[in-house]
Amino acid sequence: MNSRAPKPAEDAERRPAAPELPDDIEAAALDHEIRSELRSLPKPVADSVARHLVAAGVLVDTDPERALEHARYARGKASRVAAVREANGLVAYHAGEWSEALAELRAARRMGGGPGHLAVMADCERALGRPERAIEIAREARGEPLPPAEAVELRIVAAGARRDMGQRDAAVVALQGPDLDPRRRDPWSARLFYAYADNLLEAGRWEEALRWFLNAAEADEEGETDAADRAFELAPDTEALVEVAGTGLPAAAAGEPADAHPAAEAPEDTGETTPAQAARGAAPTTEGSTGAGPGASGDTAAGTVEGDAETAEPAGDRAEERTSGRAEREAGER
């Protein structure tokens, strides 16, 4: 028998080399709460892990594969730190590594407690072809005190899962709630209105879909969605838009400067199930109201770099993203 313990030099060769760190990446840039969790590590290790997490946060939007190299290296050095596992999971999600993201976020949830990016986890299940598990995550989250943005994002993912299963009407109902009000201007309103419009269109309710794309365009002050473009795809004639929207036609959809005319009255009720009915459980196939994408803590973002890498969101997100979260879009490209 020729077995022997590897020599230190051989063992070092088997370990992946640390990804190169730019000189301007500093451990102090890491979020304070995550730095606190790293105090259980020897200081040189903690500083190295912190710098690699900062690098992952800087790169996640522009080069997610390289970001994942840094996150994986940090995980290898600090696998018992919940925040490190969470960061690795979120970066893996952005890199399209759904199984890894799901495993890491589950581990972080077990280790640290709390809701733990449920919208991102559900979106990963969808991307892996398991929409029923995404719906189960949303169902189990009903009793948890989720941040409002996380709850909305999880609703959007659950609606997409319903759509995956051919339950188009249930997908529409899953998005209904008190916050589905065209007069609301919450940080998530544009994404919620957009998702609702997209699912209405999928259900064959063309005029209602057009109205809600217009509502989304009016609420989308940051340009996160392509709601105005989608409205024009449905009704390229401005007169047709006005006929459906009444006085609620946003300036952006009319092709005019944003200040060309004042904000309009909210559209009249279109006859769909009302938010109040949905809140009372009018449809037995509805998922619980949840929310936040890619992510899922308030948003779906890693938040590894102070004031910078709050990406995720689910699921989220992105001028061309449509209704059902980042995973659906990227999985479709594969």
UniProtKB/TrEMBL annotation:
| Gene3D superfamilies noted in UniProt | Tetratricopeptide repeat domain
Q: Where is the composition biased (Basic and acidic residues)?
A: 7-17, 315-334
Q: Where do transmembrane segments lie in this chain?
A: none
InterPro entries reported for this sequence: TPR-like_helical_dom_sf (IPR011990)
Q: Where is this region: Disordered?
A: 1-23, 252-334
UniProt feature, compositional bias: Low complexity: 252-265
- State the name under which the record lists this protein: Tetratrico peptide repeat group 5 domain-containing protein
Taxonomic classification, please?
Answer: Bacteria, Bacillati, Actinomycetota, Actinomycetes, Pseudonocardiales
